[in-house]
Amino acid sequence: MMTIQRLAACAVASATLFAMGLIAQDNPATATAGNMDISGIPDARGIYYHSADGWVPLSYTVLMPFDEQRPVALEILNVGSDHAGADIPGRHSGIQIGNDPRPIFYLHGISPNDLYLVRAETKSDYRELVMPISRHFKEWAHYREKDLTDIGIQGVNGDIVAIKPTADLKPGEYALAAPSEKGARWIRLGFDFGVLGAVGH
C-alpha cells in the first residue's frame, strides 16, 4: 500500500511542481504537420488524447522515487537498496484506451524533450514505476529499459506536438513522464493512461 509519507510528499509537490514545471518548459520548435486535426483541443496546457467522444485530458501525478524500506534522507544518500519506486494512486488510470495499440497523444504547451513512455506495474491500490538507482547522484533513479517504449515526435502547430509509440503497446498501465522543470532528472510529472487492447463492439 502507498504510505502516508508518499501521499503527503506527492500532495505537497503536486501543488507546486505542476505549475512551475509547465511554465518552465521551453516551447518546442515545431513544423506544421499535415493530416492532424486539432480543432477543439483545450487551451489549457497538458497532454490530451482524442477519443471518439472528443478530447480527453490525461491526469497527472508528481513522480517522486521512494523506497518503502528507507527514510528520505537515506534514499537521497542511496544507502541500502538497488531500486526505488515512483507511485501513481489507484489500481488503474481513469483513461483506458481500447482498439488503439499506438495511441497518439497531443502535448499542448509541454516540451517533448526528455519525455519517457513508461509501463507501470499494477499493485493492490496503486501503480508503480520501478526505478533502479545508481551510486552516481546525478543519475540516482532511472527507468528500466524493459519498461520503456520509444516514441515518435511530430510538430503539429505552434506549441502543440503529437507523440506516438513506435511499437504496439501491450495491455496494461502506462505513464508519460515529463520533467517537472527544466533540467529535472528524477522528479517528473506522470500523465497516466491504460491500454485495454482489442475491445469487442
Q: How much strand? A: 35-45%
Give the number of helices.
2
N- to C-terminal distance: 35 Å
Unreliable spans are: 7-34, 70-74
* Tertiary shape: globular
Descriptive notes:
It is a single chain. The strands form two sheets. Strands 3, 4, 5, 7, 8, 9, 12 and 13 form an eight-stranded mixed beta sheet that branches. This protein has a five-stranded antiparallel beta sheet with strand order 2-1-6-11-10, with no helix packed on it. A hairpin with a 2-residue loop joins strand 1 and strand 2. The protein has two helices and 13 strands. The protein has one domain. About 16% of the residues have low confidence. The longest helix is centred in the N-terminal third of the chain and has 21 residues. With 201 residues, it is mainly beta. The termini are far apart.
